Amino acid sequence: MEIIRAKHMGFCFGVSGAIETCYNVLKEPENLGKKIYILGMLVHNEFVVRKLEKEGFETIEEEDILTQKDKLKSGDIVIIRAHGTSKKVYNILREKNIKIYDATCIFVTQIRKTLIKMEDEGYEILFVGDKEHPEVKGIISFGKNIQVFKNLEEIVNAEIKRDKKYCLLTQTTLNKKILEKIKSFLENHYSNVKISDKVCGATQVRQQAVEELSKDVDILLVVGGKNSSNTKKLYDISKSINESTYLVQDENEIKKEWFRGCEKIGITAGASTPEEIVINIENKIRGIFNV
Ligand code: SF4
C-alpha cells in the first residue's frame, strides 16, 4: 500500500497568514484580557474554527455588525478574515473604536487597491465572480459603478460602450481557463477594456495537482470542510476522473471497505484544511492496512 499526496495541497498562503495573525494577536501583552472576535469564519474549516474558539476567540457575524446586533464595545479587538470584508464594516468598526487586525489576504487587497486606483483614473469596473461570495461583496463595496458578471455568457451580453474605458477585475479564485476565454473575447471585441489578471495561483495549482493524481491512484481522499468551496471543487475534479473519490472532514469519516483491493491511495486537502487532520487520516489508513 502506498499513500501519495497531491503535489500541492492544504493551507494556502492567505489561510496560514490569517491563522498566524490570530496567534500573534493573542501573544501581544497589550491585548491581554481583551475580548477578541474573528469576523465570520476565519477559514472554511470547522476544526480550525473550533480550535480558535477554544483559545478564546469569538466569532462575530458581518450581518450583526451591519444591523447593529453585535455586542462590540470600544477597545474590543476584531480580526478580519482572509477574504476580507466591506468598506461599511471597516467604517463601523472604526466608529466604534474597535482595534482592527486585518488578516485579509494580500491577493484580495491587491484587487481592492487596483479597483480604487482604476476608478480614480476614470475607468468603469467590470468584475467577474460570484456576487454572493464575501470576498466579492467586500471588494466591490470599495467601488462606485461596478458591473458584476458570473461568466463569459454574461459578459458577451453586457453593455460595454465604445466611448468609455473599462477595467476587468476578477475574484481571486476564478478558474484560469474561464479567465483565458473571457480575456480572448474581450481582446477580440473591445480595445477599451484593460484586463487585470490577479487570479490567485493557490487554487489553480491544487486543482491541477488533484487532476493529475486522481488518474494515477485506486482511491482518492479529499480532506476538507463540507462548506469549503475550494475543497468541493477538488472533489468534483477528482470524482469526474476517478469514481473512488471521497470527501472527508476528518479520520472518523473514513470507511474500511473503501480500501478493499486498493494499492495506491491518493490524498489532497482544501486550502483551509490543517496538516494535523491529513496526518490523522494517513495514520488511520496505515492502521487499516496494518503497516
Ligand atoms: Fe489568498 Fe488565494 Fe488563499 Fe484566497 S485562496 S486566501 S486569495 S492565497
Radius of gyration: 21 Å
Strand order of the largest sheet: 1-12-10-11
Form type = flat
Order of helices and strands: EHEHEHEHEHEHEHEHEHEHEEH
Largest sheet: 4 strands, parallel
> What small molecules are bound in this structure?
iron/sulfur cluster
Q: β content, as a range? A: 15-25%
Distance N terminus to C terminus? 8 Å
How many extended strands? Answer: 12
Instruction: Indicate the low-confidence ranges by residue numbers.
Output: none
Lay out the secondary structure.
Blueprint: E1 2-5, H1 13-27, E2 36-39, H2 46-54, E3 58-60, H3 62-66, E4 77-80, H4 87-95, E5 99-102, H5 106-120, E6 124-128, H6 134-140, E7 146-149, H7 152-156, E8 166-170, H8 176-189, E9 193-195, H9 201-214, E10 219-223, H10 229-241, E11 245-248, E12 264-269, H11 275-289
Parallel strand pairs: 1-12, 2-3, 2-4, 4-5, 6-7, 6-8, 8-9, 10-11, 10-12
Bound molecules: iron/sulfur cluster (SF4).
Iron/sulfur cluster (SF4) binds next to helix 1, helix 5 and helix 9.
Give the key terms.
291 residues, alpha/beta, 4-stranded parallel β-sheet, 11 helices, 18% strand, binds iron/sulfur cluster
Summary?
The chain has about 290 residues and is an alpha/beta fold.
What can you see in these coordinates?
The protein is flat, with a radius of gyration of 21 Å. Strand 6, helix 6 and strand 7 (146-149) form a beta-alpha-beta unit. The protein is α/β, with parallel strands linked by helices. It has a four-stranded parallel sheet, with helices on both faces. A four-stranded parallel sheet has the order 3-2-4-5, with helices on both faces. It has a four-stranded parallel sheet with strand order 7-6-8-9, with helices on both faces. It contains eleven helices and twelve strands. The mean pLDDT is 94. 42% of the residues lie in helices and 18% in strands. Iron/sulfur cluster binds at residues 12-15, 82, 105, 107-108, 172-173, 200, 202-203, 271.
